[in-house]
Hints:
Elements: H1 2-10, E1 14-15, E2 20-25, E3 29-34, E4 43-48, H2 60-64, H3 66-71, H4 79-90, H5 98-102, H6 116-120, H7 133-149, H8 157-163, H9 166-179, E5 181-182, H10 196-203, E6 211-212, E7 214-215, H11 225-228, H12 240-243, E8 250-251, E9 260-261, E10 268-272, E11 276-281, E12 290-293, H13 300-307, E13 313-314, E14 322-323, E15 328-332, H14 333-343, H15 347-359, E16 365-369, E17 373-375, H16 376-386, H17 389-398, H18 408-423, H19 430-436, H20 444-477, E18 486-489, E19 492-495
Parallel strand pairs: 9-12, 17-19
Antiparallel strand pairs: 1-4, 2-3, 3-12, 4-11, 5-7, 5-8, 6-10, 10-11, 13-14, 15-16, 18-19
Helix pairs in contact: 4-9, 14-16, 14-18, 18-20, 19-20
Amino acid sequence: MDDFLAWFQHHGGALDTSSVGITDFPGSGRGAIALQDIPENHTIFTLPRSLTLSTQTSTLPSAFGFEAWRKHKLHKGWVGLILCMMWEEAQGNQGKWVTYLTSLPTQFDTPMFWSDEDLQELQGTAVVDKIGRSEAERDYHENLVPAIKTRPDLFPSDKIDTWYTLHRYHITGSRILSRSFNVERWEGEVEVEQDAEQVLEDSNEDTQANTSIGSAMDVDDSGDGGEAADEESSDRDSDDEDTEDIPEEIAMVPMADLLNARYNSVNAKLFYEEHHLHMVTTKPIKAGEQIFNTYGDLPNSDLLRRYGHVDLLPCPHLKGALGNPQDIAEIRADLVVNVVCADNPNGETHRQRIEWWLDEGGDDVFIIDRDPILPAALTSLVRLLLLSQDEWGKTREKGRPPKAKFDHQVSQILRRIFEIRLSNYQSPDLDVDAQLLVSESLTLNTRHAIIVRLGEKQILTGALETLRLMDAALSDSGSVGSKGKRRVVSGGMTDGGKSKKARH
């Protein structure tokens, strides 16, 4: 780390070395530790915006030519940023960021690098469809390779097999996925340019003038770009119009990406000004404590896919057992349609209704979490598909979906949806996975996969229990409707906010 720190300071970065040290933490890798008690609102390091690495700060897009850059679609997704990072590292000692880039990890425990056998352990989870390996490789072969072959002056043929391989493409994409930040453009007042040490000193006197920025992992579905352009584009659609601006916002931020994250433990946040970025403490930190940034408190499915680890913490909903309080289970709209259509075949009208649902802003993925809450939007979609032709016509004229009214017919359909969703796993039995976790012979990948699928199955099993309670309430009092955003029904609830739109 001495070379990295010297490079960081040489290029205008400043670290409060009296308060912060860099060390290795068992099980979580390299991170930052408080060397003494640090007060709230204390700037622990500062770096100039010019030290961030993005398609805006790298000279490659300009050298390549902006028109040609767009022609090869390097401005879409993360393929351009990946190419910039590969090119900068290939410059060796002539490159501005080579010391930083060589300090980044070259091995990852994420499913992107798992064997097919290991991936089988994730069958049924939300991870499988979001890895994006085939999409990444398509971008590599269709965009990156043709682009570099047009400029042998920038990408000498004798360097391609060393610096621009598919393996390096995956490694670089994983670096972005796990360590990049969403650095917004400055729209405030112009700051007086100062040397880094002075900026650090002044920042500790007045941090309130800064505006926060979040890690790329803080932004829900913000774009996995080249490595997983189908789903995160982490948090943005992979459609061209939605990913076109990603390279201008996503950047590698030296020093900031050293901080680890842990659920509900954030104690420092990155702030920005026109010319500098500042990592500022958000609460007092005791000497010896780790300094945490945030991933945004993600479910284990996302933690594993992006970072290669999972969180196990006391979870109130599991009666003291360990789990991730943020775990979720996803229900895709096409599963809902298939279940309804199985009993009510009318393909053409169902297609019309789904198109209308999506055009009106309806969700195509419904999220269930550890609370006993069922998404009202899910119930509404079921009711839309069950409407008679006359009712469907009236609904379309009104321009709003049916209310999330719960009855026995809806309950039976939801039950089949959850049961089918559970059947997608190798075994729907919770006890099977719980017993497997006791084994000491499990590989790390298998253990992580079991933890992810166990969390999802616990949620789906809980959803079935919620349905049982709602059915009991229905039998006692008749039809139950959903008014407002949340309604309690004998321990179960329907919640109008528990869903999200997602493209896969």
